[in-house]
Design goal:
alpha+beta; 260 residues; five-stranded antiparallel β-sheet; eight-stranded mixed β-sheet
């Protein structure tokens, strides 16, 4: 599951780590509490003059398919289950033709503790580098705006998830992930990243093959992650700042707006 995350990299650092070009209008706000419907960076590839060009764009978190009447569909589509992508009308077209990666410094997960109180944990790479999670993107045209209006087109995205490792895993990190939640975002690296975001329309079988490759490597990648307590204040979208990564900050704060 992924419903809150951290993305506070400077634009230049993000573009360099993605080995990509920045969209001409790229503007990103640092955030330690990114929530669905926020503007988030995505990395995708487009064919320009016959060559694949990797780019960083800003998208609305919550995928809005082209057939949607309005953007409210995206509120429920910030995550997409990797097992059922081709079965869901919201994601079916995107998995065949519009695949991307969603960069994060880490994401939050909640777990009930003593007394049933839910506590947040920050899941991140031990080496401090960005996660690249599998995603989908779509372009949606606002029917209320004229065809030539530059604000007519909305870019939106969703993060793919898969089943977490079993809670009885022998690996302590994987076991902890399984204890936290039954779902986790799908990490990409190396050839899996290159294959997933490569431009072009795929058939269903080829799309599933690329997806299965990433899924098969996901738990091994997750073994290099770290899981640390975070401030309970992260449960409120009005709170933002690096102090959210400190479990002692605002201990006992209200945890309203929790999405898990």
């Amino acid at each position: 599951m992924c419903g809150r995350y951290v993305m506070a990299r400077a634009v230049g650092d993000l573009v360099a780590e993605a080995e990509a070009e920045a969209d001409a209008n790229l503007e990103l706000r640092q955030s330690w509490n990114v929530a669905p419907t926020s503007d988030v960076p995505v990395v995708l590839e487009r064919v320009i003059d016959g060559a694949a060009v990797r780019q960083v764009h800003v998208a609305r978190w919550g995928l809005v398919p082209g057939w949607a009447r309005d953007i409210s569909v995206g509120v429920r589509a910030f995550n997409a289950r990797s097992e059922t992508l081709l079965e869901k009308p919201t994601f079916r077209a995107a998995v065949l033709a519009r695949r991307c990666a969603v960069p994060m410094e880490g994401y939050y997960e909640w777990q009930a503790g003593p007394g049933g109180i839910r506590r947040p944990y920050f899941v991140h790479r031990a080496d401090g580098r960005l996660h690249w999670f599998a995603g989908l993107y779509e372009w949606w045209a606002d029917p209320a705006l004229a065809a030539g209006d530059p604000n007519r087109w909305l870019l939106s995205a969703s993060v793919l998830t898969l089943a977490s490792p079993e809670p009885d895993s022998a690996d302590p990190v994987l076991r902890r992930l399984g204890e936290l939640h039954g779902r986790m975002p799908l990490p990409l690296s190396g050839e899996d990243l290159d294959a997933w975001i490569a431009p072009g329309t795929l058939g269903a079988a080829e799309a599933l093959e690329r997806l299965s490759g990433a899924v098969g490597n996901a738990h091994a990648a997750a073994g290099a992650w770290m899981i640390e307590p975070a401030s309970p204040a992260v449960g409120n979208v009005r709170h933002d700042g690096p102090w959210l990564l400190d479990a002692e900050e605002h201990r006992g704060a209200e945890t309203g707006d929790v999405l898990f």
